[in-house]
């Protein structure tokens, strides 16, 4: 049995009494006390997460921009230094290898953030696509920690720990943008993206400085109701926000059009990997007139539909499958995401989910389920 990797914050989680789970080969906090209370803290005040299992891959070189435009489906050359973009990396068949956030650090430097379980796949794919480009790929995951602060009070918390001269930087950094701040003498990449549906920040820094930052943020957050949060609440928060999870909504067996992700930059000139397959899928109407499409599903009650459950029409004919589902702590009823045949994907469509042999009515709704 392979020993699970631990983040630089493992001792902090132990001290806080966290229960742990295996996530992408990492020993990660599942929850500290109550996942429900952690979820509510992020919606009403703020939560702090250790996301150091996520990958950090630096792309550097004269051809960095055009390389990423060839390697990924989005137009990364268009974003300016200080900004970030959500994109996908696909295979030749158009199947999704991972969804990524990419920060443009400088004219010739980007930071790509793959999911934990896909880090090696992404690094290998990027390295295989470098031929003919003046570019280098550096996997910096093992040396970098990532802490996220999410929730309505997140800006106030971050502002309270940076230098007084940098408070304006925190206030002015926009959504899907980043800046550099100093906390406790340590220079930190501060980004504003998030995966919870709330305002929030991500802080990237060397492993050896992570413990001090974690403790400083917790201390500063006492007056703001900052709560340590695990992956259980992170999952329910992202589900309410209608955000896909790789391995659930996204996989090599799905194309961006099925997932309803309008991130493929067909207008860019580069012949990116998977372009021909995705152009064919677009021409065929995949996700619009043919095949399946990812939808939101809302139940009247609290009984949840879980991943893998069959979705049927009123006649009991299977029309799709649940990818994620749970009771929504914020909305008070069960919600789910799943793939259904396009003919059944319009909001307002009444469907059923086979929940342990009992058909439970669900209605197709627009995503996200929750907006702040």
Overview of this structure, please?
A hairpin with a 2-residue loop joins β19 (350-355) and β20. By secondary structure, the protein is of the alpha+beta class. The strands form 4 sheets. A 6-stranded mixed beta sheet has the order 11-12-13-10-4-14, sandwiched between helices. The chain has a 6-stranded antiparallel β-barrel with strand order 15-18-17-16-19-20. The protein is 22% helix and 33% strand. The termini are far apart. It is globular and about 65 Å long. The protein has helices spanning 10-15, 35-44, 64-71, 119-128, 154-161, 167-172, 210-220, 231-240, 256-259, 275-283, and strands at residues 5-6, 19-23, 26-31, 46-50, 57-60, 84-90, 96-106, 109-113, 136-139, 144-150, 178-183, 186-191, 200-206, 226-228, 292-299, 310-312, 318-327, 334-341, 350-355, 358-365. The model has no long low-confidence stretch (mean pLDDT 97). Among the domains are: 5-54 and 143-240, Gyrase A, domain 2 (2-Layer Sandwich); 292-372, Aminomethyltransferase beta-barrel domains (Elongation Factor Tu (Ef-tu), domain 3, Beta Barrel), CATH 2.40.30. It is built from 10 helices and 20 strands. The glycine cleavage system catalyzes the degradation of glycine. Belongs to the GcvT family. The glycine cleavage system is composed of four proteins: P, T, L and H.
């Amino acid at each position: 049995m392979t020993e699970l990797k631990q983040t630089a914050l493992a001792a902090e989680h132990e001290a806080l009494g966290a229960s742990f789970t295996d996530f992408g080969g990492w020993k990660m906090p599942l929850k500290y006390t109550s996942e429900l209370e952690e979820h509510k803290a992020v919606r009403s005040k703020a939560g702090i997460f250790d996301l150091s299992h996520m990958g950090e891959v630096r792309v550097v070189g004269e051809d960095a921009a055009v390389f990423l435009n060839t390697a990924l489906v989005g137009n990364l050359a268009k974003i300016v230094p200080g900004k970030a973009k959500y994109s996908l990396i696909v295979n030749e068949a158009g199947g999704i290898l991972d969804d990524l956030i990419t920060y443009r650090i400088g004219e010739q430097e980007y930071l790509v953030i793959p999911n934990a379980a896909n880090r090696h796949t992404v690094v290998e794919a990027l390295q295989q696509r470098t031929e003919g480009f003046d570019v280098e790929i550096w996997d910096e995951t093992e040396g970098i920690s990532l802490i996220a602060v999410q929730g309505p009070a997140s800006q106030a918390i971050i502002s309270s720990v940076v230098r007084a001269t940098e408070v304006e930087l925190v206030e002015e950094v926009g959504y899907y943008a980043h800046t550099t701040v100093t906390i406790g003498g340590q220079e930190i990449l501060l980004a504003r993206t998030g995966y919870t549906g709330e305002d929030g920040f991500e802080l990237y820094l060397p492993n050896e400085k992570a413990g001090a930052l974690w403790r400083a943020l917790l201390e500063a957050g006492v007056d703001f109701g900052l709560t340590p949060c695990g992956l259980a609440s992170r999952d329910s928060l992202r589900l309410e926000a209608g955000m896909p999870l790789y391995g659930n909504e996204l996989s090599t067996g799905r194309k961006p059009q099925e997932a309803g992700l309008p991130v493929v930059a067909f207008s860019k000139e580069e012949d990116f990997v998977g372009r021909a397959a995705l152009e064919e899928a677009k021409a065929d109407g995949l996700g619009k007139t043919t095949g399946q499409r990812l939808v939101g599903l809302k139940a009247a009650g609290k009984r949840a539909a879980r991943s893998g459950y069959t979705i049927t029409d009123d006649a009991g004919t299977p029309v799709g499958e649940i990818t994620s589902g749970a009771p929504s702590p914020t909305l008070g009823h069960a919600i789910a995401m799943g793939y259904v045949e396009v003919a059944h994907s319009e909001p307002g469509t009444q469907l059923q989910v086979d929940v342990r042999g009992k058909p439970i009515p669900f209605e197709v709704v627009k995503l996200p389920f929750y907006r702040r």
